[in-house]
Design brief:
The protein is α+β, with helices and mostly antiparallel strands. It is about 25% helix and about 25% strand. The strands form 2 sheets. The protein has a 6-stranded mixed beta sheet with strand order 5-2-1-6-7-8, with helices on both faces. Strands 3-4 form a two-stranded antiparallel ribbon. Strand 6 (about 110-115) and strand 7 (about 120-125) form a beta hairpin.
């Protein structure tokens, strides 16, 4: 079973890049790793370049065998780099609402957004309004 999420970087007001992440999108896993390891524009940009992920790690890592990935590894497990999938690059949208719709489209349960300084997150729901909150260590302790 998986908890899908979208991870995004807002480069400018109308320029949000995002990638899909398949595994354990809860704040206690993906949120915690983002907060602790992906906290500069340069690092988050490297994540966006990597594309859609099966599993987020604390490092981009090197190309490795997708089927032999050690899930305790610090390396990201990427669909394009590690399995050779096509069409798994980051997706660009103009608004946060569009980002949330992308998350709904992949059955995502959480959206994470980096604004260049801080991480924000939101559970994905069927409500018309989505509220992004600042991602904190305390938020990463709850599920």
């Amino acid at each position: 079973m998986s908890t899908r999420s979208r991870i995004a970087f807002q480069f400018s007001k109308n320029n949000i890049y995002s990638i899909y992440c398949h595994y354990d999108g809860y704040p206690s896993y993906v949120g915690k790793i983002l907060l602790e390891h992906w906290n500069t524009p340069e690092r988050v940009n490297a994540l966006m370049v990597l594309g859609d992920l099966s599993q987020l790690g604390s490092e981009v890592g090197d190309k490795h065998d997708f089927d032999k990935h050690d899930h305790s590894s610090t390396s990201c497990l990427a669909y394009g780099r590690d399995r050779g999938d096509q069409n798994v690059s980051s997706v660009v949208c103009k608004t946060r609402a569009e980002l949330v719709e992308l998350a709904k489209g992949c059955c995502g349960e959480f959206v994470y957004l980096f604004d260049g300084t801080s991480w924000f997150y939101s559970p994905v729901s069927d409500n018309k309004r989505t509220y992004f909150r600042k991602l904190t260590q305390k938020a990463c302790q709850k599920d």
